[in-house]
Amino acid sequence: MVRRSGGRIHRQSRQVAGEGHPAGGSRRGAAEVPSGSLAAGGRAAHRPRQAARGEARHAQGRRHHHEHPDRGGDHDFPRPRSDQVTGAATGHQGSAFTQPRWGLIRRVALFALIAGLSATVISQILPRVYRAAVKILPSDTPVGLGLGDLLATSDLSALLGARGSGQNPALTYPEIIMSRPVLERTLDLMAPASPKHASRSVLAAIGIKGKMPADRYDRGVRKLRKLITVRPNPRSGIIDISVDTNDPELSAFVANGLVDNLNQFNLDVRESRSRAVRTFVEGRLHETAQTLAASEEALTQFRRSNMRVGNAPQLILEQERLQREVEAQSELYRLLQKQFEQARIEEQRDTPSFTVIEAAVPPMRRYKPSTILNAAGAAAAAAFLAVVMSLIEPKGTRLSSG
Asked: Rounded to the nearest 10 degrees, what angle do helices 213-227 and 180-187 cross at?
């Protein structure tokens, strides 16, 4: 009879037959040993050896794990069943522990791929926008010289107490460009014909339709303001004017038209201000001339009446007063006459108030939508969403889904 105990085969003692022994009965009785006693003795003798072998295998596995940490110790000795689920019995990470991590990676990659492809397709479907830009450098002269600005450039300001307005063109020009007069003039411009469109006004080119002219211009001004971007550079003083439309030719035409209308607006305002200043100075010049003539006549009459002043104090003081009045009116008349000539010159001046550094040209590439930026942004947002979804899922769901 054969029994297995502790992984080893133990054989029981066979009962000795009586054929080879003369006293078969007595020897058979003496040789008969209970089978249970033999099995118990074999297991007891095998336990110390089995424990020693198990400790040796565990020690060898630990040495192998320290020497080869990347390999682990899975092939050196059998792992308990609980380690195959959680990896807690031996400290090694089992396959079930890494499955949720790989599931999260697959989910993030899938979400990012779908979102990126969707954004790419949508970017190709959306209307294309082309941006044309023009750069100008304002002159040091303020826009539309007023009375104080003109008088501040001459010695007359010392007499009249006039001071300049101190305008900053880098801050003034953006407001003028976005003003209604400049935008309405731009809307009236006729865009040149192109292979796609015939000659038409800017108002019609940007898609403004209607029967009421006032309503059309009102909607056209609002829409044109949305298409225009003005960015002044405080350090260099350069102003960047850009226009975004669906047609590259139209974008360049509107940008250059804005600059032309800005220059014309400045010339008109300058002419109007200069005319007003010239009229004012001309009136003051006539008044000063009359006052000067009266002062000179008074001094002449005093000298005729008092040809021999002598040492009379009162007569001397009166003569000096009349003399100072004539000198003051003469100086004022001289300065007003100089300012009058300057105002006349300013009224006729038609030089631009700024310099065009870079004119607008039709762009070759679209400004937006940007396919790369949209795809990257959508993929990043989708990946973040996938991570958030995995964090808020129940723990059991994450393990089962992985």
From this structure: 100
